[in-house]
Amino acid sequence: MFGGWLIRSHVHSWREARGDDTLDDFDRQHYARQYRRRMQASGGIVFLGLMIPLTDSPLMLRIGPFGWSICVIIILLVTFWIFVLAMGDMTSTRVHSQVATKKLQRQQRELEEQIARIKRRGSNGHAGRGEPA
Q1: What is the pLDDT of residue 123?
Q2: If DSSP codes are grouped into helix, strand and coil, which group holds residue 22?
Q3: Other C-beta atoms within 10 Å of 127: how many?
């Protein structure tokens, strides 16, 4: 149930990001990779939600200890993959945020330089007293 909610949430977020015309290619690629990672992790959570109860089912008694061991190994591998995806998502989000912050800081510096140039010219963009507008 939780995994299904996550998948729905990721699809909604991706549709919004994909339709956002203000995003540049760097941001759009970041959100596309993020969507893939998160969909894999959410699908893995759904898979685990189905597999874990299956290991306690009467079906496992018919499969035997070897089949049960294989199921548990698969559960552990999927759990590890979800962990790897989560670490990758965390790292990617941190790097993307740092790049976006640097881009904003650069834009801020450029705007501050423009303001300083305007102030040096002695003009604030408005006509002075007695001057025609």
Answers
A1: 60
A2: coil
A3: 10
Q: Residue 94 falls within a domain, yes or no?
A: no
In a domain, 104, yes or no: no
Report how far residue 116's alpha carbon sits from residue 111's, in angstroms, rounded to the nearest whole number: 9
pLDDT at 102 over 90: yes
**CA terminus-to-terminus distance, the chain:** 65
**Does residue 95 lie in a domain region?**
no
Asked if pLDDT for residue 129 goes beyond 70, the answer is no
Residue 54 lies in a domain: yes
Structural domains counted in the chain = 1
Domain that holds residue 38: 2-86
87-100 CB burial, b ≥16 within 10 A, e <16: eebeeeeeebeeee
Could you give the CA distance from residue 93 to residue 88 in angstroms, rounded to a whole number? 8
Average pLDDT, whole number, for the chain? 86
